[in-house]
Protein: Fumarylacetoacetase-like C-terminal domain-containing protein
Amino acid sequence: MPAIKTNWSRLIRFVAAETAQIHIGEPIDPELDVGLAFHKEQAIKAYEIFGSALDPAAQVTKNVLTVKQLLPPLSREQIGVVRCLGLNYADHAAEANMAKPQFPILFYKPPTALIGPEAPITIPRVTQPASKHLPDYEVELTIVIGKAAKDVSEADALNYVLAYTGANDIFSVRQTIAFLSQGTTLLPGSVIMTGTPKGVGFVKKPPLYLKNGDDVTVWVDGGIGTLVNPVVEEGASAAVKAKL
Structure:
C-alpha cells in the first residue's frame, strides 16, 4: 500500500477576510507558526486549496487569502470518530507511578468535544470549583487518517496517515494504527490522539490545575506549531464566545 501523497505540506482551515467564507489553504510562509501568529494577531496569508482536506488530490492554487479566523483543520462532519490513548508515554506513566500498559488503553470522545484555536476550554458548573475537581491539562500529537485502514500491519501503518496536528509514546504511531485497525476500519478523517508526555499538573509540587483566566498553550515540533486556548469557568464570563 503506497503512502498518501498530498500537493500541500501544511494545511489550515480558516475564514478568509476577503470572502467571509470558510476555506482551506497552505500558509505562504513555510516557517510561520500559524497558531502562534493567530494568537498574537499577526497577519497570516495562505494559498487557497481547491478540494477537500481529506482528498490527497486537492490542488494548491496561487490565489492568496488572508486568515480572519483560524479554524480546526477538519470540520466536525469530516471527523466522525475521535480515538484517544491513555498512558501512552513511558515518562508520563513513571511520573504518575503507574505501570506501562501491555496494550494501548483506548477511549473515545465525540466530535462535538472538539474546539478550534483560541476557543475557550469551558469548565462546566458541575465540575466547579476547580480547586475541588482539579481539572488538568495535556499536550498530544494527533494523527489524522487519510484512507480506510483495516487489519493494517505495523510496516504499512504510516501509509494511511494523511497528516498530524496538535491537541489540547509507549506505543509508536505505527503500533497504534496497527492495533486500532484490527477487526475494524479507521475511515478517512478518523482522529487518533496519542496521549500526553510527562509534565501534567497533578504531579507538580505544588500541583497545578486549570482555572478561570488561564491560557493553555500546546506546541508540537515538526512544523505543526502552536495551539492556544483560554480557560473559562462556565458562568464566569458571558463575554467569551466559542470559536468553532
